[in-house]
Amino acid sequence: MSExxxxxxxxxxxxxxxxxxxxxxKDYSGYDERQExxxxxxxxxxxxxxxxxxxxxxxxxxxxGALPIEFSLLMMACLMVxxxxxxxxxxxxxxxxxxxxxxxxxxxIVLMVAVMVMQYLGFRGHVKLGDVIVHGVLxxxxxxxxxxxxxxxxxxxxxxxxxxxxxxxxxxx
Amino acid sequence: MKNLKxxxxxxxxxxxxxxxxxxxxxxxxxxNAIEKGDYNPTIRLCIAIxxxxxxxxxxxxxxx
Lengths: 173, 64
Known about the structure:
heterodimer; A: about 0% strand
């Protein structure tokens, strides 16, 4: 129950953050046809990745045997890989992915780093409790913190790498 | 194929990609992609760009 409450609270905080950030962009029309096109492709690739990864996990569990990871955590990992495909495709094709890259990327990175710090602290807490790996299986409680940490770390690395590539290539004239 | 006509028209008005993007209501990356020939804009965006640069569609987007 407390997990559902935490997720809901985090979702509300992110939405408020987005509303505040978008309010600053009064001149932004909110529609960019090229980006809508890219986002459409990104959602397609993300959905296909999600579908194939879910199918692969279920097939593996049925045909080969149980993986040393709690099943709910595996499902969440598949979901996050799908989301990651959408986000990384958008980043590398210069589209927005929920928050504007032009004016909001710094604020977004701060928010993501804050989430990563919280996840790291959570993970350390679980390590101290010793419930990250139980009977050789990576549990939901400890594994989720690690999963979210890696998820945001990959986004930040790609954002910074893209910014560096753009700067080096001098895309703005 | 690069759209050098659009790039020179923008430069003639001393506009940056960001300024033109703001005028037509898209992102700077979209203007960059059009000039580099990586993206074919819709007629709606072509018209908006022509109006912002005081040019006709033929002048900017017709390949002779």
